Please model this.
Amino acid sequence: MGTRYEQDVVAWAREQAELLRAGKFSAIDVEPIAEEIEDVGKSEQRELSSRMAVLLAHLLKWQYQPGRRGSSWQRTIKEQRRAVGVALQKTPSLNTSLRDSGWLTGTWADAASKAAEEQGLDAFPEELPWSTEQIISAEFYPQ
Model:
């Protein structure tokens, strides 16, 4: 075997891809390949969670600071909704995250923390006050 996974992951990945394409399955480094494949899914979930947290934080700011609403917040809300929609379209299995109460609770906590830190606010509901449908709807802006 060539490069070890721990030594240089990029060189290792190229070598493993070549072995797979050549059909040399007995020579591949199975366990690290399996871990890397799982990490791809985790990365997609982290990306969705990050975008949802930004979106939720801006929806919170929109609701709790009506005097500061502006085109910048509106652009951020639209962009995050677009990016969430693209992620869900490209990876439909991510839709299960939107129905997972534990995932939503964690994402909501991140969003509330982010909004509180950015705006000096701390009077947010402990539980997510909007449905997933509202959050990703282009027409929804909390009042």
Observations:
- The first helix runs from residue 9 to 21.
